[in-house]
Amino acid sequence: MRKILCRSLLFLVLMSYVPTSFAQPPGLSVKGKVLWHGGKPYRGIGANYFSLFSRMLANGDDKSGLQNLKKLSQAGIPFVRFMCGGFWPVDQKLYLENKAEYFRRLDRVIQGAEENRIGLIPSLFWNVATVPDLMGEPLDQLDNPHSKSIAFIKNYTAEIVARYQHSPAIWGWEFGNEWNLGADLPNAAEQRPAVWPQLGTPATRSTRDEMKGAWLRAVCPNRAPSRPRPHHRNRTRRTARFSVA
Fold this sequence. Notes:
The chain is of the alpha/beta class. The chain has one domain (46-240): Alpha-Beta Barrel (TIM Barrel), CATH 3.20.20.80. 42% of the residues lie in helices and 11% in strands. It has ten helices and seven strands. The protein has helices at 2-16, 20-23, 54-58, 64-74, 93-97, 99-115, 130-135, 148-164, 213-219, 230-244, and strands spanning 28-31, 34-37, 40-41, 47-48, 79-83, 119-125, 174-176. Strands 4-5-6-7 form a four-stranded parallel beta sheet, with helices on one face. It has a three-stranded antiparallel beta sheet with strand order 1-2-3, with no helix packed on it. A hairpin with a 2-residue loop joins strand 2 (34-37) and strand 3. The longest helix is centred in the middle third of the chain and has 17 residues, at 99-115.
């Protein structure tokens, strides 16, 4: 009996030293159609902080984003979603020309979130046209698995995830922002990505730069794509203004 008791106590002591990351996955996870965080079902509302990293990407000495993270944490905001890269091709050149400096700046964002105990959901490719423009390809090359655009997306995703996957600040990943809003529009020629050559875009666009729902359906033919309606977003903005006031 004494041996059994000693073994039981030893087992409990050893179990108390099991790392939390081993006992439960960090960030958000899905179990049986339920969202989980911290070992229990989770429901929460975060904030959209578009410019958290882009401020530092434009100016390595800009600490305003980190200071605002602290304020958001103090206000009880559990997590933020942010653009994890450049909006225009010119904004992403630092990654190509000086990767060490690019990650030094992004590291500071991740570390700032860890220090302030606030979660992050990085949106890796916010603007659908940025990577094709950066690679000198039309938008339809996102449907070509052998294109330079897809190669860039795979490499960038692998680097970001490998670098930060164990950070407790990372709650989840997002691939892009509202890409489906521009798909299969009846006036697609008028809704092609913007043209700003000084920001790294091509001087002109063509039908090859019009988003097609078939790109998604070719990969997953049995699922209906969601298309958010603009008036829902406008209503949310009105609510946000009233809340701030």
